[in-house]
Structures are given as C-alpha cells and as structure tokens.
C-alpha cells in the first residue's frame, strides 16, 4: 500500500472512527482528541501495517488501545491545580471507600479461609489477588489457562460459601 493509498484509506474511515471515538468517550472534544491521536499513531506506525490484512480493524484496534491506555493513565494520576504555591497535589479519590474498623476482623477471617485452602486452589488465587493475570499464573504454575480460570472461580465460590455471614454486611 503506497503512502497515498494509506492516507486515503485512513481519511475514508474518519467519520466512522469519529463515531466510534464518541461511543468510547461520550464527549465530543475528547473524541476529537482520540481521533487525532489515532491518526498520528497510524501515520507514525504505518510501517507496522501488514499488507493484505484488515486495515479497518487495525485502525480501530489502535483507537481502542489508545483509549484504554489514556483511561488507565488518567486514573493513576489524578492531579489538580489548587492555586497554592505547590502547583500540583495528588488527590485521593473521593469515591474511594475506606474500610470501617469492624471490617478488619472480616479481612482476618478472609485470609484465614484463604490459607485453609488446598495449595492447588490457594496458590493461583493468591497470585490473582496479587495482580497476576490468568495467563501469567498459568505460565508460572505450568497449568492450562482454563484450569487456572476454573480454580480461581471455584475458590471464589468456596470463599463465598464459607464467608456467607460477611456477605450480608
């Protein structure tokens, strides 16, 4: 695909991409920014596009991944300008719910129940709680991905059953 063909194909998708950006952001200005960033990335990484593949899917994937990455970045860095001498302060999330003092017993009880599990369930579940992805757990434990997913699912169900007195709170 020549540079001109690439540019024409990209511009031909502009309206559809803008509509998709609006569906992701629900804001016209943010959608315009997302569209512009998608175009920039597509032009920058033009050489990464493989001939005879779905160009439209490639562009939509760029937009979706850009949106997801921007969203994650914005959630991590909630900074605000407050007019003081210190230009920026890290804000604590206002919608974050901090645990009540009586919930610490529940946490202790949950950990006790997790530690009482058989290793085949406890290890994948604790790895999942520590932030590992299913695929990473499967690779580290040398297990099939489906096995890891089902063990984590069944562990949740076991914990739910054993801790049912806390689920009503």
From TrEMBL:
Keyword field: DNA-binding, Sigma factor, Transcription, Transcription regulation
Domain RNA polymerase sigma-70 region: start-end pairs: 14-75
Protein name: RNA polymerase sigma factor
InterPro entries: RNA_pol_sigma-70-like, RNA_pol_sigma-70_dom, RNA_pol_sigma70_ECF_CS, RNA_pol_sigma70_r2, RNA_pol_sigma70_r4_t2, RNA_pol_sigma_r2, RNA_pol_sigma_r3/r4-like, WH-like_DNA-bd_sf
One Gene Ontology molecular-function label: sigma factor activity
Family matches, as Pfam families: Sigma70_r2 (PF04542), Sigma70_r4_2 (PF08281)
Family the entry assigns: Belongs to the sigma-70 factor family. ECF subfamily.
Domain RNA polymerase sigma factor 70 region 4 type per the UniProt entry, residue ranges: 109-159
PROSITE patterns (alphabetical): SIGMA70_ECF (PS01063)
GO BP terms: DNA-templated transcription initiation
């Amino acid at each position: 695909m020549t540079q001109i063909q690439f540019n024409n194909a990209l511009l031909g998708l502009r309206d559809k991409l803008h509509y998709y950006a609006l569906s992701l952001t629900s804001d016209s200005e943010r959608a315009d920014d997302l569209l512009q960033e998608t175009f920039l990335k597509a032009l920058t990484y033009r050489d990464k596009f493989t001939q005879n593949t779905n160009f439209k899917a490639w562009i939509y994937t760029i937009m979706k991944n850009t949106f997801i990455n921007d969203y994650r970045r914005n959630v991590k860095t909630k900074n605000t300008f407050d007019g003081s001498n210190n230009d920026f302060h890290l804000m604590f999330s206002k919608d974050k719910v901090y645990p009540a003092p009586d919930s610490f017993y529940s946490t202790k009880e949950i950990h006790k129940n997790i530690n009482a599990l058989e290793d085949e369930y406890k290890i994948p579940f604790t790895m999942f709680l520590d932030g590992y992805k299913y695929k990473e757990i499967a690779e580290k434990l040398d297990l099939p991905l489906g096995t890891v997913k089902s063990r984590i699912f069944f562990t949740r169900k076991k914990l739910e059953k054993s801790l049912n007195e806390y689920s009503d709170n």
